[in-house]
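Pasting as-is:
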Amino acid sequence: MQIFFRALVLLILLCPCASFAQEMNDDGAGSSAAAALTVEAISPTRDDWVETVPANGWLAAWQEAVISAEISGQRITSVNGEVGDTVKAGQELADLSSDKIESEVQQREADLESARAALEEAKANGDRARKLKGSGATTDQQITEYLVAERKAQADLDSAEAALASSRVDLEHTRILAVDDGIISSRSASLGDVVATGDELFKLIRQSRIEWQAEIPLKQLRHVSEGTRAVIPTPIGDVEGTVRKIAPTASEKTGRVTAYVSLVPPDGDHPSPKTGIFVSGYFDVGTSAAINVPSSAITLRDGFSYVYVIEDGSPPTVSRKRVETGRRKGDRVEITSGLEGKETLVKAGGAFLADGSVVRLVSASEADEAAKSSEKDAGQ
């Protein structure tokens, strides 16, 4: 009797559990058909996008002029040029002491006058000797000596003129002048220094021209040629230029080829580029068709890019597809491989999807309303 009573109690307890399990099974069958995520469908678009070749390189002077001392033993008496100064050709940058050279010029001028006087005397003797030649009034040897003395006096005069010209050139070299228009990029001259011939005093960026020495991968060099437009993005605006020359050889270390880009002179809104800066930019090599999607449609997993393609069915499902990306334009990303361009894709939310997930499709307006409602709920 006691055993029967225990069995009856156990049966009563199990009956509600069985009924609940049946209800759960019925609900589970219905929930399996429920959408995993509400998504908006989009289609890839095909547009003509600018095709670019990225590159890195240094900003450097187009040409740099070295201004050196051309005489020795003179002391620097003034320095008039500073680094960063914009100068004109012939502008005085420094002065060297000139007292000794001025004295040499005066001495050479005196030597020249003496040589002129000696030549006049030698010419007079020579003229008389030529008149007396053959008259017997003087010997041939004496006549020859007069004529040789005349030639020697002429040579002495020429030598004195050359010495004077050389001293005057040395005097001019006591003024250190800019050899071209440009910007002083380096100054070694210091007040009181005694210079030697060849000592570097200043460096000058000729014509104030800065260029970008961009290194281009060899496989992309075919897209770039002389005259190709180049752009260097900066926080305050793009700096533009054109390819002036392309190096005839590639670097043995990197295998890249240097393109020399002449930059457009800056206007009042942009500062002048500075040499010695490593920058990144790109070359505008034309346009080409690009299949592109919003960046929100791309999901990154394990270092690869994926999109979710909506498959026809009732209910609709999604399949994950790996793609390769390329150029970017604003919020749009180019798909270089993996899509034909006719697929229907999930616009956003790929991180919450899996291959084969069931989705519920909504229009763009419904998606916007849902997003606004979510933001409102979050705010409350």
